Amino acid sequence: MKINFLNLVRHKFLYFLLGLVFILLVYRDYITTYLFFDVNAPDLANFDGTAIKNELLRSNLDINVLLFNVGFYQSFLLPIIISLLGFNYVTLKTKFIKLSIGKNDCYFKFRKHLSWQLASLPVLLYLIIVGIVVIITMQAGTFQLSGKEHLLSETSVLRYFLNSDLILFIFSIILVCVAIFVNSLFLFKIIDVLQNPIKSAIDYLMFIWLGSIILYHFMPFYLVPMTTFMITSYGNLDIQTLLLPYCLYMCGYAILKKYEDEI
Fold first, then answer.
1. Which candidate, 172, 181, 186, places its Cα nearest to that of 63?
2. In terms of C-beta density within 10 A (0-12 exposed, 13-18 middle, 19 or more buried), how is residue 94 classed?
3. What's the rounded Cα separation, in Å, for the pair 129 and 134?
4. Helices then strands (H, E): number in the chain?
5. What is the Cα–Cα distance from 75 to 70, expressed in whole angstroms?
6. How far is CA 82 from CA 118, 155, 233, 260, in A?
7. Which of 8, 90, 99, 257 is the most exposed place for a label (fewest CB within 10 A)?
8. What is the pLDDT along the chain (263 residues), one digit of tens a residue?
9. Burial class (CB in 10 A: 0-12, 13-18, 19+), 149
10. Structural domains of the chain, count
11. How far apart are CA 91 and CA 8, in angstroms?
């Protein structure tokens, strides 16, 4: 059973709306400054209000500021976007079972193919959002990356390969894309066991949000699930700290796989 990639995108308006909300939040400071900064305010009587406003607007378009905003809001919006995929996953999987008259070897191959395709959708949405940010900053002349050298540990072997702000920027984007992909596959495995997209989405969000809030109190940050999304917000990273956030996912996946085999 072949599936057109565009057919995977159900509830297109909802994904568009969430993407739009994401972008508006990233540019919130710029928008509020543009709309509400009063160049004729009494406090600016002895200053050039227009020049000050323009400078503030330019600083709000700084690529480093915008990337910080992206990193902050992605921890809230990406899990929601991923959770919505569950409904697409269940619908298409159920449709295949009906067409193929039950579960068989083709079903499991289809399910793997489906999960990989669906997991790529939020990755694509994230890349579009980052791409929009990059294009706008290039047009505004504010694409000047800085501060990325603190991302990696001084002793990390990765420094030999990731030796510029631009390469580190691309690397950080790849890390988030991997996190989105892994989290999507993890959600699909929960659905395979629970067979309920709503309950699975709630369980996943409790794992990634509530579980992380609790674990942050007594575990190193690099062992907490949310760190998969937020890893680029930390510094002094090495290969070990980049991989460790996925330990709980591997344990959870193994447990879910065991329960699935028993169903």
1. 172
2. exposed
3. 9
4. 11, 0
5. 9
6. 9, 35, 21, 21
7. 99
8. 555 555 666 777 888 899 999 999 999 999 999 998 888 888 877 788 788 889 999 999 999 999 999 999 999 999 999 999 888 888 888 777 666 655 566 777 888 888 898 999 999 999 999 999 999 999 999 998 887 777 888 788 888 888 888 988 999 999 999 999 999 999 999 999 998 999 999 999 999 999 999 988 888 888 899 999 998 888 788 888 899 999 999 999 999 988 876 65
9. middle
10. 1
11. 10
Q: How many residues does the chain have?
A: 263
Residue 187 is part of which domain span? Answer: 5-262
Could you tell me if 145 and 169 are in contact, meaning their C-beta atoms sit under 8 angstroms apart?
yes
Buried b (16+ CB within 10 A) or exposed e, 71-92: bebbbebbbebbbbbbbbbbeb
Q: Token pair of 110, please?
A: 């289809």
